[in-house]
UniProtKB/TrEMBL annotation:
Record-given protein name: TetR/AcrR family transcriptional regulator
DNA-binding region: 23-42
UniProt keyword list: DNA-binding, Transcription, Transcription regulation
Organism: Streptodolium elevatio
Domain spans labelled HTH tetR-type: 1-60
Amino acid sequence: MKRDLLLDAAEQLLAEQGTTALTLAAVATRAGVSKGGLLYHFPTKDALVKALVQRLIDEFDAAVDERADGSPGGYTRAYVDATFDIVTDRDPHRARRRWAVVAAAATASALADPLREATRRWHRRDDDTDVVTARIVRLAVDGLWEATDYAPLLFDAEECEQLRRRLVRLLEDPGDTSEVAGTAAT
């Protein structure tokens, strides 16, 4: 599909040359289409960046949905597994492209709105488990994603697997939640 070809070209430009290199003319050239062909799908640079962000969100949603099993804590386990699949993807080109899309969205507040809304949805999702533990686990994997965007080889495969297992275990045994429930003695 030509639309995906254009989005791929835009991601590549962002990853290789940064946000200042992302122009409609450069994307058209990279994709091997006319500027008019690009404008048919994306009339503005903002429309292109919004589409890049939406594709990133849709891909993550699909990865989580594919793994979710409907059990208590199942959504958060799927969130952990999907994130670890991304974090442990050793293809540096894909990792840079994901980060580049987020960086491009950060250039204007309105461009990041879909990502902010998705983040709210991901972190407010009811999971039929201890709410605070689920949030801690999701925030931890988000932090891991952020850290590995800056340092992709921060943890080797074994370390990543240890982290993943520990986070999943937290969901299975959240420990003493009395403080969270407001029943702790003061």
